[in-house]
UniProtKB/TrEMBL annotation, chains A, B:
This is E3 ubiquitin-protein ligase. GO terms for molecular function: ubiquitin conjugating enzyme binding; ubiquitin protein ligase activity; zinc ion binding. The gene is Siah3. E3 ubiquitin-protein ligase that mediates ubiquitination and subsequent proteasomal degradation of target proteins. E3 ubiquitin ligases accept ubiquitin from an E2 ubiquitin-conjugating enzyme in the form of a thioester and then directly transfers the ubiquitin to targeted substrates. GO terms for biological process: proteasome-mediated ubiquitin-dependent protein catabolic process; protein ubiquitination. Pathway: Protein modification; protein ubiquitination. It is an enzyme of class 2 (transferase). Keywords: Metal-binding, Ubl conjugation pathway, Zinc, Zinc-finger. One of its GO terms (cellular component) is cytoplasm. It catalyses: S-ubiquitinyl-[E2 ubiquitin-conjugating enzyme]-L-cysteine + [acceptor protein]-L-lysine = [E2 ubiquitin-conjugating enzyme]-L-cysteine + N(6)-ubiquitinyl-[acceptor protein]-L-lysine. Its EC number is 2.3.2.27. The RING-type zinc finger domain is essential for ubiquitin ligase activity.
């Protein structure tokens, strides 16, 4: 009997160790899909001035008004895409990925379909969950933001942006999917370019929007799993032409 | 030349007549799908007291608290499901359909997949768009409501209810789909029973929720087309058991 008890203890220890290993990696595979655990980013240094005056971003690759002085010199200059870091960095499209990885330690994941597992959904607004996604030869940025548009009523906004130009972004379609408790919510759209402002996309509400009660229904133990898939939208456009 | 002009005029007249005919019927078929034009119902006699005290409806077929005095006698008694009519009617499940048709002139449509075309989305809140849907041997009620949860910020809430018991409702899955402007939003869930209160489903936000900007993106000329499909969910539950 003692033998069995010890065996059971050893198995439990192994499971615990394996769990710790997963926690450390923060990326693991479940049911054939790559699951990425994304920790929240909460900052008191929230700088809404960065793009506060930005109107609906245009599709012509023009930077938001707050960057017009830069746009006159170089329309490819991108402000730092970590909205809550109030990072003063600005750079060319080609170095955005390395800046986000090196300065802000944002993970980059490979694969056409991944699961974004946002932890600690209960944290107060404003909070961001950010990850990069490498797929189909391009890099995308997924931003999940908890924000209070109406005081006392936090909402969740999720959008995907291409680290590329608006013209390149038009070639893709992204899908965000929530699936739990006999409910399923899918959002499909063309990604915006990071040359447009993530703040204006979210303030326009042109993204997946969840109120707190829906977010709770889709959450498991304080974590929200969002399935992400990216496809090329060329098939759709040729269908539309037919 | 005059001949061609007159021919063109005659064709235009024919198109106009056909359009008038469609408008009169308010139900027509587009691309093989049944499209139902649903006019809004706006009432100043909004009676939030009807279910104002109702909490999240239970799955056990218990009526909302405001009807407990009735529930003691007959748990199958249903208040009138036209929320903005402040209709004092109450009746058994079996006669809900005939009451909605005869007293409130709500259309009933046949078919597994239909398109619900809500007109005049610009009308101020509170406004309802209601239709009945007959499918798979049962009748369902689709309610689209424009409501101001936060003053000055109207939102749209869409849900489907079974004119039947909660146990019967568990056998179905409904899907609402919006598709326009390179964006697609899908909501899938188990319908609630009309024995639960539509007001509490909407106030809980456990339904398809659209802010005004998203509703505008999905609207065409002030009308919002919602694709509706109902399936039996028995396949899903057997899959879950496997």
């Amino acid at each position: 009997m003692l033998f069995f008890t010890q065996c059971f203890g050893a198995v439990l220890d192994l499971i615990h160790l394996r769990f710790q290993h997963y926690k450390a990696k923060r990326v693991f595979s479940a049911a054939g899909q790559l699951v990425c655990v994304v920790n929240p980013t909460h900052s008191l240094k929230y700088a809404p001035t960065l793009c506060a005056t930005a109107q609906t971003s245009t599709e012509q690759g023009i930077l938001p008004p707050c960057h017009h002085h830069e746009a006159e010199h170089d329309p490819q200059l991108v402000p730092c895409m970590c909205p809550l870091f109030s990072c003063p960095w600005e750079g060319h499209l080609e170095v955005v990925v390395s800046h986000l990885r090196q300065t802000h330690h944002i993970n980059i994941l490979q694969g056409a379909e991944i699961v974004f597992l946002a932890t600690d959904m209960h944290l107060p607004a404003p909070t961001d969950w950010i990850i990069m996604h490498s797929c189909l030869g391009h890099q995308f940025l997924l931003v999940l933001r908890k924000q209070e548009k109406y005081e006392g009523h936090p909402q969740f906004f999720a959008t995907m942006m291409l680290i590329g130009t608006p013209t390149q972004a038009d070639n893709f379609t992204y899908r965000l999917e929530l699936n739990r408790n006999q409910r399923r919510l899918k959002w499909e759209a063309t990604p915006r370019s990071v040359l447009e402002c993530v703040d204006s996309v979210i303030s326009d509400g042109d993204c997946l929007v969840l109120n707190t009660s829906l977010a709770q229904l889709f959450s498991d133990n304080g974590s929200l799993a969002i399935g992400i898939a990216i496809t090329t939208s060329k098939v759709h456009s040729s269908e539309a032409e037919m």
